[in-house]
Write a structure and sequence with these properties.
- Helix 1 packs across helix 4 (53-73).
- The chain has helices at residues 3-21, 28-34, 36-50, 53-73.
- It is mostly helical.
Amino acid sequence: MDGQAILVIAAILIGVTVLTLRSEPRRRRTILLLVPLPAAALLLRWAAYRHAWPELAAAAGLASAGVMLWWLVLGRRLPPAGNSKLSSGAC
């Protein structure tokens, strides 16, 4: 297994997941169409081309553990998206 590929894919998956979770609820469908779905399609094509299914599975497991850790440490304390002063345009 390629450890560097696992770490890079896990970082990509964590970033995409956090971006999706922190998006505003009314824009979530647009975000889903523009970020996670193309990323998933590219990752699946990469794994099929390289025959790297174990790396993709390990990265998905590592990413889910990372997102759970992020949620327990920081995510629960963040206000819901769209309720902050920055998103309302007030600076």
